[in-house]
Specification:
Layout: H1 8-23, E1 28-29, H2 33-40, E2 44-45, H3 56-59, E3 111-122, H4 123-133, E4 150-159, E5 170-171, H5 173-184, H6 193-207, H7 222-236, E6 244-254, H8 267-276, H9 283-289, H10 304-310, H11 331-343, H12 360-380, H13 406-413, H14 419-422, H15 425-430, H16 437-443, H17 467-479, H18 485-493, H19 507-511, H20 517-588
Antiparallel strand pairs: 1-4, 2-6, 3-4, 3-6, 4-5
Length: 589
Amino acid sequence: MTSKAFSRDTVRNALKSWIGVEVLTPGIVEEGGWNGYAQAIGGQLRNRVTEAQTGQSLWDTPDDEDIAPWFGEVQTEITEAEDPIASPDGQAASIGERGAIPARKGQLKSRPWYKIVLAAMPTAGAMKFLDGVFGDEVDEDTVDRKMRGNVLAATLILDEFGILVPDSMAFASFAWGIGKLCADGATADLSAWENEESSLLHEVTARLSPTDAEGRPRPLSWQDLRDVSRKLRTELGVPEELWIVTPCAIRTLNKDPPSGDILATFYLRDLAAIERDLPGVPAATRAYLGLDRPERTWDALSDRRQLSHLLQPALFPLARWPGPGLHPLTLLQQGAVNAAVRDLSQQGLFAVNGPPGTGKTTLLRDVVAHVLTSRAERLADIEKPWNGLGDIDLRDYAIVVASNNNAAVENISLELPLREKALDPSIWKEGSLTHFSHTATHVLGLSQKEDEARKAWGVMAAKLGNSNNRYEFHQRFWFDKDWGLSEWLDRVWSPNQSRFEGKEPSRLCKVDPPPTREQARAEWRKARSEFRIAMEKCERLRSGLIETARAQDRLRLLESGKPALQEKLRGALHDREDAERALVVDEER
């Protein structure tokens, strides 16, 4: 069975459609309106200067003439020992005076920041507009779509002085896309978003960065912000009834400025790059898009010959994941692992499909075992790693587990380091397998007092993804005062060991004392030797299995020729009998 690859034009049109869908994917603020949104991001609506701490006066949409709340900011976060507010030239500044930029000496424990919703769009109106553009006035999917609330169109961050925080301006691709559809209808080219976004950001950021007569940054007023919002709507070409001008400011307290919003999907930049350089995309992308197709496809459930080929000993990876029970993979699981190892040695795409509970995670663990062993083989080639890793890039042996389902990711990344979830007891209990298990347990957020079976056996996976997860991992893994590896490694390798004299060792250093330099080198040589011996043994065993498989193939070939030979033998015997009978008759004459 063969399949035909798609043409570049077909794929390019599909990419443009995909980009259009992503551009018109809105970020909707639905539950609780702007007040609910403020609470969701840990802040409070504060739309004007008022003595009230809560209530309608803070929530009502600001007008051009309202005094923005940062002009009345009181620096209550300053400690008593710090200096009072002063202007940059040392003179007292009048709080609430437009144009004055309060400043202080000393440091704040936390500072006020303001997230400004520069513009929003009514969700129901925007969706109705899209239905009209695409001729879908009565949408059968309406019951499943979010129709309430507002779509974020543009946001930014101001500091407590009303000054724009650099790189905090964000635009929604959705708002830009609506403007394009207004101008060009359903045939609008939405693939130009990436190019136009950067120029829009540059222009609007410049408008939001006014200076005073002396060239210093000037605080923004509500009129400044709302004028920029109205001008942006005009430039985008969005109808006035679909544009909400600067509905609110949200005050938060943080030591550092909040991150700017992402109001366009992550895929847009990558999709645009692929569309620009379609002939040069990597093999995995070409396969995913259908530019490259397999020369021949086959059914693993019915084609026993092809499956048998995949199960040749030569295709088996040398490593298996020692999961609970040490059960072997099924034939189809093993075939999938062998095919993945064979086909993805350099690059490519490999799909494994199956309903829940059919063993996809189990076979993926064997792929992980193969990657770990491949990395160990490369490292074992290094005689003295303390002189450097040479041309080895350890990222070539890393695995990213990604999904739109957090539970699916955690089945892999959070269970692989756990003893009872990932390993047979004979491995972690009797075999004493451990690799910085205390640090690994801490990285997973588990107590060191947990039952041994519920602790981690080693550092091999981490829950990353968003910036908070990455920061948490970085702190726990390296710099935690009790279980971080930074001090442990310093004590092993620091040329100045005297700096640790009189310093209380970390808990990790106490329960797992770091070796000296020479001990560490000796342990490396020992581990390297044992690993290479084990690999050589596995190679010999596999070579023996390969020869056995070849002998079986030869035997099957001989067996397959046996019926024909037997038929020839029967024919020969028959001819002999005929010849013998003819000879007897001749002698009688």
